[in-house]
Design brief:
Distance between the termini of chain A: 22 Å
Order of helices and strands of chain B: EEEEEEEEE
CATH architecture of chain B: 3-layer Sandwich
Helix content of chain B: under 10%
Strand order of the largest sheet of chain A: 3-2-1-7-19
Number of strands of chain A: 39
Strand order of the largest sheet of chain B: 1-9-8-4-3-2
Radius of gyration of chain A: 32 Å
CATH class of the largest domain in chain A: Alpha Beta
Number of helices of chain B: 0
CATH topology of the largest domain in chain A: FAD/NAD(P)-binding domain
CATH superfamily of the largest domain in chain A: FAD/NAD(P)-binding domain
CATH architecture of the largest domain in chain A: 3-Layer(bba) Sandwich
Largest sheet of chain B: 6 strands, antiparallel
Oligomer: heterodimer
Helix content of chain A: 25-40%
Radius of gyration of chain B: 13 Å
Distance between the termini of chain B: 11 Å
Number of strands of chain B: 9
Structural class of chain A: alpha/beta
Largest sheet of chain A: 5 strands, parallel
Shape of chain A: globular
Number of helices of chain A: 27
Strand content of chain A: 15-25%
CATH superfamily of chain B: Rieske [2Fe-2S] iron-sulphur domain
Chain lengths: 803, 107
């Protein structure tokens, strides 16, 4: 069956977002064509005000690069406008005479800026503030001229005005109402905002109605209804937007203010959808970005024929993106005769808060100066929460400032997976989530690099209020309620010997566990019983099973061992030969002073290792990785100790030791610390007659400076203390807990106490030696095992034999 | 148009590694073949719908495989991506005759 033809009209945030949702569901189902009026790939329109304010560049606000369209086989016609929709024969025509057929059509034509039809509106120097072209025009004018007038004191007008101030222009804001942002703020907040912006240098002309834009060809000023006038070289019209429904209306699709759609974003016509600012759902047209995501999802599910509850409308909130000004509003803004309000006005600090209550429910809020509570109020409104709930949590709240509180819903919490604060908060409320892991499971936030875990935790606390318990018992994964300590105790007590036995005896909720508990159990079993336990290849993550790092295209990288980062001409020659023979994609030096051969095919790995005839560098493993060294006393004029020799000894001793997470080390020969031991799991610094051992440093996701564990005199003692430290870490840390997190958790003083105790230190080293005794160099071992070679590295090329 | 099937021999049952995947190449198709804990042999497209990860190298748990790239969980039986992610991969019919394993491919 051929692919179904899908056409998107409008290459903006809403339409492309909908396409992304569709690709997520059915990546190969549709043949997609996109027409966009602007000559750019999809970019983040909301960030334009930041571009204007100089905080970011136009190139930085692109959401989907050209390559994205290519990779997804999407035909993009930028700078091409669709002029006709033929519903009967299902095709569209463009201004360039192109004709394309469709099975499904999505209209995402967005909005047009509303230009008041004043005399002179077509003069040179009059612009809207809507797209990249407008933005560039304003920047260009700011280079040549001095005076700007912004018509419209709403959200967009103020952001434009702030941008023009940053560009060095004098700015007058002309507004028809008696206070600013009257659609989002009440008068009190509007006046506070005005004061703040005046302090930043903006001038306001309120209750002014512009009647003419003066000048010959080029604008020179504005004339008002009351007879007043001002000079201006640039006029920015920012009085509002109106849904761009022309195309739909011209072609017989039902249009009211926007293109009328149902809960599935379907228009009046079969197989034609509308999404984003051009769509009108339940008599609402949204001019903000947040609803687009929900609308896109509803649309995608429908087109892909999957069940979905449909789009149910959005509760909106507004935040002004002007630096130094915190304004937030949501829901109902102004009092009526049935509302009661809570107002707090602190003239001294310049903060203002108003919460509107109707029938004991919060229906709206306006915040100025301190907007931390904004998102909580928004979620309370969405939940239709009782006002008492808010008041109770308010009185028990401490005054600690929370970063997540001040973030807007559209801000990203998890950059890796593109999860916004709004999505997380919504998932927490809708699904009753209470742990970071549950949030991860439901939204993907913190699943990739994990840097945002603490933000997610704050957000849980922030959203749940008192219901959140920070100190949760952490189960290994969702397959069990048991914690790491409980599982290890059971393994020891019951003498459990393999992962499936653990899962069975300890009544795992899943039959064979998951990608989280399988490798964890495999590690714990090996740690408890190093000589007896048979490592399970199927419970290892791909890199540790294949003894190489998988890359994004399914090839692998190979890092041979170079003790202490020292190499020689023979090894380099071998590496060069291997790189040529196997057509390695890239040769790169790693952060740990090793050589990385990237782009090796899976089936080539064993012979690459054989040809290299060097030990594995374990660059792929949760184990002792590299010992980075400085040049040291043998060559360096500052060196006080033989750091290279020490590093080689350490690396040789601990090579291949399985650990809860990777362990990176460094040895330097003087306090200049060129091997960067301050951010290593173990950082050794040689001083005159002394070695310092620092531990728990991290230079990666959670930057942490290593702490001094101890000072010793001899090289033997260095090995002894590192041994005790590593074994204690192996026995006590959670799987995938770096030493930095572990030291932070248990405290350096506690670790010191243990390793300084001669008796404990000896015992730890004995158990460590036992663990090390079973180590076999994996590359060589693999090459000597026909079964493993066949099971793991073979790629079978099969051909048809019959029928 | 009538669908015809092509039957392709891909290996022996007792030579398939248990709880692991194997990469099979047929023409320009890469297929991941798994022998599950219960002995069933299953075949799916060797390409995660997320970013194209090779599923044959994923960790197998019961009837699911976890993509080695970003840990998407995918059913080996029906090809469905599990929540919170969404999507699916192609599945292929496996035929076992004595000790021989075949994949039936639609033409």
């Amino acid at each position: 069956m051929g692919k179904q033809k899908l056409i998107l009209i409008g290459n903006g945030m809403a339409g492309v977002r909908a396409i992304e949702e569709i690709l997520k569901l059915l990546p190969d189902q549709f043949d997609i064509t996109v027409f966009g009026k602007e000559p750019y790939p999809n970019y983040n329109r909301i960030q334009l005000s930041k571009v204007l304010q100089g905080d970011t560049e136009i190139s930085d606000i692109t959401i989907n690069e050209w390559e994205w369209y290519e990779e997804n086989n999407i035909r993009l016609y930028p700078g091409e406008t669709v002029t006709t929709i033929n519903k009967k024969e299902k095709f569209v025509e463009t201004d360039k005479g192109r004709k394309e057929e469709y099975d499904y059509l999505i209209i995402a034509t967005g909005s047009n800026p509303f230009m008041i039809p004043l005399p002179g509106v077509d003069k040179e120097g009059v612009t809207a503030f809507r797209d990249i072209k407008d933005c560039e025009k304003m920047i260009e004018y700011s280079n040549k001229y001095k005076r700007a007038a912004v018509i419209g004191g709403g959200l967009l007008g103020l952001e434009a005005a702030r941008g023009l101030l940053n560009l060095g222009m004098e700015v007058d804001v002309i507004h028809i109402s008696d206070y600013l942002m009257e659609r989002q703020l009440d008068k009190a907040a509007g006046k506070l905002l005005q004061k703040e912006l005046e302090a930043q240098g903006m001038k306001f002309l309120l209750e002014k109605e512009t009647v003419e834009i003066t000048g010959k060809n080029r604008v020179t000023g504005l004339k008002f209804k009351d007879g007043g006038k001002i000079p201006a070289d640039l006029v920015v019209m920012a009085v509002g937007i109106k849904p761009n429904v022309q195309l739909a209306a011209d072609n017989g699709i039902e249009v009211n203010r926007g293109i009328v759609v149902n809960d599935y974003m379907e228009t009046s016509e079969a197989n034609i959808f509308a999404v984003g600012e051009c769509a009108e759902h339940d008599q609402m047209v949204y001019g903000l970005v947040a609803p687009l995501y929900e609308q896109g999802q509803a649309l995608a599910k429908r087109i892909c024929g999957m069940n979905h509850q449909g789009y149910k409308g959005s509760v909106l909130s507004t935040q002004l993106k002007v630096s130094g000004v915190d304004v937030f509003s949501t829901g109902q803004i102004n009092e009526t005769n049935v509302t009661k309000s809570i107002k707090v006005f602190d003239e001294w600090r310049g903060t203002y808060k108003k919460i509107l209550v109707e029938d004991e429910k919060i229906t709206g809020a306006v915040l100025f100066g301190d907007t931390q509570e904004g998102n909580r109020l928004l979620s309370l409104i969405k939940q239709k929460a009782n006002i008492e709930e808010y008041l109770e949590s308010e009185s028990s709240e401490d005054s600690g400032e929370s970063l997540v509180a001040s973030m807007s819903d559209e801000e990203l919490i998890c950059g890796c997976n593109g999860v916004t604060k709004g999505t997380i908060v919504e998932a927490i409320n809708a699904k009753g989530l209470s742990t970071v892991d549950e949030v991860k499971g439901a939204t993907n936030a913190s699943r990739s690099c994990g840097t945002c875990k603490s933000l997610v935790s704050d957000l849980l606390e922030h959203t749940l209020g008192d219901a959140f318990e920070a100190d949760q018992k952490e189960s290994i994964c969702t397959c069990t309620e048991l914690s790491r300590d409980e599982v290890i105790a059971e393994i020891k007590e019951k003498g459990l010997t393999h992962t499936r036995e653990v899962m069975h005896v300890l009544e795992w909720k899943t039959e064979e566990g998951c990608s989280k508990c399988k490798p964890a159990l495999n590690y714990y079993l090996g740690m408890v019983n190093p000589t007896e336990y048979e490592d399970e290849k199927e419970s290892r993550f791909v890199n540790e099973r294949m003894h190489a790092n998988i890359q994004n295209n399914g090839t692998y990288s190979v890092v041979p061992r170079m003790y202490g980062g020292v190499t020689n001409s023979d090894d380099l020659r071998k590496i060069a030969d291997v790189a040529d023979k196997y057509e390695v994609g890239m040769i790169k030096l790693t952060g740990g002073q090793r050589i990385d051969l990237l782009g090796v095919k899976k089936e080539d790995l064993p012979s690459v290792w054989k040809d290299l005839d060097m030990p594995s560098g374990h660059a792929y493993a949760k184990s002792v990785r590299t010992v980075k060294t400085c040049v040291g006393a043998n060559f360096c004029r500052f060196g006080t100790q033989d750091s290279v020799g020490m590093g080689i000894q350490i690396e040789k001793k601990f090579e291949g030791l399985n650990t809860p997470h990777k362990v990176k080390m460094g040895v330097s020969a003087c306090p200049r610390n060129c091997a960067e031991g301050g951010v290593k799991d173990v950082g050794v610094i040689g001083l005159d007659g002394t070695w310092e051992i620092h531990v728990g440093g991290n230079g990666g996701t959670e930057l942490r400076q290593a702490e001094l564990l101890t000072k010793v005199k001899t090289e033997e003692e260095v090995l002894e203390y590192i041994g005790a430290y590593l074994q204690y870490y192996r026995e006590n840390a959670k799987y995938l807990e770096r030493t930095s997190a572990w030291v932070e958790r248990v405290g350096i003083a506690h670790v010191q106490e243990v390793v300084e105790d001669q008796f404990l230190r000896n015992e730890l080293n004995e158990r460590l030696d036992e663990a090390l005794s079973v180590y076999k160099e994996p590359w060589n071992e693999t090459n000597n095992d026909e079964t493993v070679l066949k099971d793991l590295f073979e790629k079978v090329h099969a051909t048809a034999i019959s029928k | 148009m009538e669908n015809t099937l092509r039957k392709v021999f891909i290996g022996k049952v007792d030579e398939m590694p248990l709880r692991l995947g194997k990469t099979i190449v047929i023409d320009d198709k890469e297929i991941a073949v798994f022998k599950l804990a219960n002995g069933d042999i299953r075949a799916i497209q060797n390409r995660c719908p997320h970013k194209g990860g090779v599923l044959a190298e994923g960790m197998v748990s019961g009837e699911h495989v976890f993509c080695p790239m970003h840990d998407w969980k995918i059913s080996i039986v029906d090809g469905q991506v599990q929540a919170p992610d969404e999507g699916c991969v192609e599945t292929y019919k496996v035929e076992v005759d004595q000790n021989n394993v075949y994949i039936n491919l639609a033409n």
